[in-house]
Amino acid sequence: MQVARTWLLRPLLRPSVAHNQIPVRLSSGGGLAEFFEAGRDPKSTEKIVYGRSWRASELRVKSWDDLHKLWYVLLKEKNMLLSQKQMLNSQNLRMPSPERFGKVRKSMCRLKQVLTERALELEDRTKRNVLKRMINSM
């Protein structure tokens, strides 16, 4: 029995989402809107000043819950920056503030450093090893 494989011979085409002229409505309640910076025109040339990275000394005084929340805030910021960079690259536009990647990365590394310090202070060896494995997988 011969199966028609004509669909295999067709070239795969990537949808051109970035060049689509249909306006996309992004709700402010999460979802897709969290992957793009709100209220920022990619063609704007004005310089916007952003915050600095977190210091390890500041992170050491935070609770476990605060560090957990901060990790996900930083992860969302990183994903938003990567999505924005991808979108701008597809439109041959430049990233407005590329130094933000370094600030987010530094903060994430320092957060992992503080968590590792806390894990090493634990006396229970099994808890320490479990926590170190969890931190290293981040």
UniProtKB/TrEMBL annotation:
InterPro entries: MRP-L47_sf (IPR038340), Ribosomal_uL29_mit (IPR010729), Ribosomal_uL29_sf (IPR036049). Its main location: mitochondrion. It is found in: Mitochondrion. SUPFAM superfamilies: Ribosomal protein L29 (L29p). Keywords: Mitochondrion, Ribonucleoprotein, Ribosomal protein. Pfam families: MRP-L47. The keyword Mitochondrion applies. Belongs to the universal ribosomal protein uL29 family. This is Large ribosomal subunit protein uL29m. One of its GO terms (cellular component) is mitochondrion. It comes from Riccia sorocarpa. The keyword Ribosomal protein applies. It comes from the Eukaryota.
